Amino acid sequence: MKVLVIGGDGYCGWATALYLSNRGYDVGILDSLVRRHWDLELGVETLTPISSIHQRIKRWLELTGKEIELFIGDINNYDFLQKSLQAFEPEAVVHFGEQRSAPFSMIDREHAVLTQVNNVVGNLNLLYALRDDFPNCHLVKLGTMGEYGTPNIDIEEGYITIEHNGRTDTLPYPKQPGSFYHLSKVHDSHNIQFACKVWGLRATDLNQGVVYGVLTEETGMDELLINRLDYDGIYGTALNRFCIQAAIGHPLTVYGRGGQTRAFLDIRDTVRCVELAIETPANQGEFRVFNQFTELFSINDLALKVKQAAITLGLDVDIQMLENPRIEAESHYFNPKNTNLLKLGLQPHFLSDSLLDSLLNFAIKYHHRVDRSQILPKVNWKRV
Predict the structure, then answer these.
(1) Which domain holds residue 342?
(2) What mean pLDDT do residues 87-92 have?
């Protein structure tokens, strides 16, 4: 099968492209490389050394004999997008090509507008391109568990059955996004659902939890194939930040009371979930939603797990509470469902098995690359 990975130079996209290529899929990568530009603009850098996309693809070919076709350009440019799709002729499109940082979207008005225009317009362009030239192509779109927020009821997979005034209907699950980034993903979901209904497209929305880990079988083959490990205040996750802080002797910085609970999964499960979605595509006209995660942790849980793992490596680790720069519930109910991908055959990896090999050991190996000035939060949700 021919699969085009939009955003294939990014964290999830790169691992997915290599995984699918290694599994025998004919893979293309389409990417504007703008994430590299944003890193330069913000003065941040991933902990691990990332080679150019051309070097990465060349090394992959040398190691495996498998070619990955590359299209460099912006999907907000409809002419470029349409010509690229026509040249590659995909049977499935995996769409990772969006600005994915909540803090980035909350820096100021310009970054909020950039995020929403980049994400919503690019996604809408893709829907039109598929409608016009590849109506049978299966769209696998990366969503986020952050679309749901933290409601005081169980989170279903995309839809909820409601009885109201004696009548019953199954409706899209209510969304309570927590940033302009998460809002853009909600807009994407609505646009995709509408396109499936009116044009008969087929799409799977993967509402993904927080992804962790550097290693997949493929990215571990060679340092030129290594994946990102972001720890800064814009793109870094709390778990990544804790691991880097442990490696350099910096206190683990917990925002607020640390009761914020989120869904998590290993990068190896991310790529497998994408494959499962591709292997069993949505029906024509169907917009289906899978909640893509394997475990739930509070921020306090993560800090304690990193501290315990670091102690086994002889590291001295303290935990420090900081004022929360975000507007979010710090104590809440959180019970999302994730049965669909498990039914399709996902066999999860767990954080307890990945924390040392795929996070802490990398943090220690590359600790000399840490920029301490980028560790603490720089963006405040509050109007100040």
Answers:
(1) 2-374
(2) 98
